[in-house]
Amino acid sequence: LLFRSLFTLAFFIIGIIILIIYMTVDYSIWKKKGIRKIEIDDSGLNLYRGANNIIERIEANQITGIDVFTKLNRKIVNIITDGKTDKSIPGVTFFSGSRVRITNDAFDDSVYSGFIERVQQFKK
Known about the structure:
This protein has helices at residues 2-33, 109-119, and strands at residues 35-41, 44-49, 54-59, 65-71, 74-80, 85-86, 94-95, 99-103. The protein is an alpha+beta fold and 124 residues long.
């Protein structure tokens, strides 16, 4: 019984360590590459990424599709630039080509809803 108790405690501690490592790596990636600011005009959008605000420009004519969905309590927008979306299996979405995924985690809900409305105007 003592062995099982120690064994379970070890798995718990290892699980917590893995969770902390995952959260640290995820935060580091967001600091380096995460979208901090979005500017939309009539010809496309500018994405400002990372701590240095590196600009990534997406022209309206590059956008081949826009996929908007909700997963749990997260609103997610996928801007597909050179591919397509396949939703042939219910609940599963396949993407071909490159895409930009923007979630509502770092944005105010009312601003994000306005962003969704505005970006859907680029849909072909």
